[in-house]
Amino acid sequence: MNRRDRWDGGGPVPLAQSLRALSDRMGLAPPDVLRVVFSRWEEVVGPTMSVHVRPVRLEETTLVVVADHPAWATQVRHLASEVLARLGDACGSEHAPDHLEVLVRA
Fold first, then answer.
1. Could you give the 3-state DSSP secondary structure of residue 36?
2. pLDDT at 29 over 70
3. What is this structure's pTM?
4. Would you call 93 helix, strand, or coil by DSSP?
5. Cα–Cα distance between 21 and 105 in angstroms, integer?
């Protein structure tokens, strides 16, 4: 498919539509889900955990977070189902993350 086949030339394309198409091609979650996960992280996990565990990537429905210490990684793994449920409520979307991958980086 060439570039001309993807755009009908009928005028400007809304930014939200362009971002959604780009997210789909890159295998990322929809932009509205990305916005909720990254902007409401502290609200979802609480102020204490958000200092030590932060989201870094959302690929399709897998949320990758980084913990600054193995103890925090253990804690967030233990609470994974609760964190994912809260994110599902916050996103209000079937595209909300349903899997949590935890990395440790000091």
1. helix
2. no
3. 0.75
4. coil
5. 32
Set out the domains of the chain in order of their start, with CATH numbers: 14-104 (3.30.300)
* pLDDT (tens digit per residue) in 36-86: 888 999 999 999 999 999 999 988 789 999 999 999 999 999 999 999 999
Q: Rounded to an integer, what distance in angstroms lies between the CA atom of residue 65 and that of residue 72?
A: 11
Query: Cα(91)–Cα(57) distance, rounded to whole angstroms?
Result: 16
The 8 Å CB, 24+ separation contacts for 41-49 are 43/90, 44/83, 44/86, 44/87, 44/90, 45/76, 45/79, 45/83, 45/86, 49/75, 49/76
Contact 35, 95 (CB under 8 A): no
| Token pair of 71 as six digits | 């103890």
Confidence of residue 99 (pLDDT cuts 50, 70, 90): very high
Count how many residues are written for the chain.
106
Coil, strand or helix at 13:
coil
